[in-house]
Design goal:
Number of strands: 10
Distance between the termini: 44 Å
Number of helices: 14
Shape: elongated
Helix content: 40-55%
CATH topology of the largest domain: Alpha-Beta Plaits
Radius of gyration: 32 Å
Length: 385
């Protein structure tokens, strides 16, 4: 069996260190595939044949071992995996002395087989999920491609007609904490139908499925709570963690849109001031619109105004004032309170900004233009993660 061959020498070395005795592993033909004495690998261990045939433990003292090919005194036990014999494990030595280790080593070997099989299955599942996610992200809308993606999803157990929402987890999780992070993600979502894979070393995309659908309450609210709890858990592993969530949807084209929304929303969450740990696409419609505005959409005058602002030593304070002014509905009192300054100080700064740039924050059009400019700089000009 391939699993035995892949793990045999590791099993032997770990088992030998555990009990301080020589150990061997055979396949279902009684051929030694792992041994403390590596020169014996490939030989027949005849004592294993009877164990494989009966499924019972075999003991063989020195006299009995002489009549069996490739066999020394010791005990031989059957190894099982998924309810069937996959080989044997033998311990060399006086049967009366080493028999006490037999069941321990057998249980250890079978446990390691199950663990490694689960690891391998997860790697395969992750690879299949990543391939599926990439096909969804690059879906062109063609009916032939749609049929292919749906069929591919079905072969690995996913029904793409089930309502889902894309969740983008952006966190540079250290390698030593990755297993814990994956366990936290598994627990946060229903992984019977949720699809997850790492798009990059710091980005994990999940197509989260939830009972009852995701097209409104309580589905999306339940997802919001899960994402907040997950972000809190992941912050213990990596404090610099944000989550962006796309809209709830069903169908391939809508799912692709949700993925795009999640990617942009996570980027906005990271670039927010202060950073927002969990953001839903519906919460940042304006910011998503701003992030899509090309540089050439702005006039040279507006661009020059931003250049002038950037040249000032208090450029960040000026931009903070512009954001606060718009977010406080152009209220002098509320903006001054939000900035922790006197109203007269605020008005002085508003006048200074007009002298520097020609744009007057008391003008709705001027204020919105400056707001869009600094927002575009915030969300577009910084390098992508």
């Amino acid at each position: 069996m391939e699993k035995i061959r892949d793990l045999s020498q590791e099993l032997v070395e770990l088992s030998g260190r555990l009990i301080g005795e020589k150990v061997l592993i055979t396949d279902t033909s009684g051929i030694i595939v792992g041994c403390s004495d590596e020169e014996r690998i490939g030989e027949l261990h005849e004592a294993s044949l009877a164990v494989l045939q009966t499924g019972h433990v075999g003991t063989h003292d020195r006299d009995a071992a002489r009549s069996l090919q490739g066999t020394f005194a010791g005990v031989t036990l059957p190894l099982e995996f998924d309810g069937r014999l996959v080989g044997t494990v033998g311990i060399t030595g006086d049967p009366a002395r080493v028999a006490q280790y037999g069941q321990l080593i057998r249980a250890f070997a079978e446990m390691l087989l199950r663990y490694r099989a689960g690891q391998k299955q997860r790697v395969i599942r992750d690879q299949e999920s990543l391939s599926l996610l990439r096909e969804i992200l690059y879906f062109s809308g063609a009916e032939e491609q749609k049929a292919h993606i749906i069929a591919r999803a079905s072969t690995i157990g996913y029904d793409l007609t089930i309502p889902r929402a894309a969740v983008l987890i952006d966190a540079d999780i250290p390698a030593e904490h990755m297993d814990a992070a994956q366990d936290a993600i598994d627990q946060a979502f229903d992984f019977q139908q949720s699809v997850a894979a790492a798009l990059s070393p710091r980005q994990i995309l999940v197509l989260a499925a939830a009972g009852g659908g995701l097209h409104g309450e309580p589905g999306m609210e339940q997802l919001r709570e899960r994402c907040r709890a997950l972000q809190s858990t992941l912050c213990a592993l990596q404090p610099d963690c944000v989550i962006g969530v796309g809209s709830g949807c069903a169908g391939l084209a809508a799912l692709q849109t949700s993925c795009e929304e999640a990617l942009v929303t996570a980027r906005i969450a990271r670039r927010s001031i202060p950073a927002a740990p969990v953001l839903f696409s519906e919460d940042v419609v304006l910011e998503r619109m701003i992030s899509a505005i090309p540089d050439k959409a702005y006039s040279r005058a507006a661009t020059h105004a931003m250049e002038v602002i950037q040249e000032q030593r208090d450029a960040e304070e000026i931009k903070h004032m512009i954001r606060a002014w718009c977010q406080q509905s152009f209220s002098v009192s509320n903006t001054a309170r939000a900035l922790f300054i006197h109203k007269n100080t605020l008005l002085y700064r508003v006048d200074r900004l007009q002298r520097l740039t020609g744009y007057d924050l008391r003008s709705f059009r001027d204020a919105i233009t400056l707001y869009l400019m600094i927002s575009m700089q915030q969300y577009q000009e910084s390098s992508p993660e």
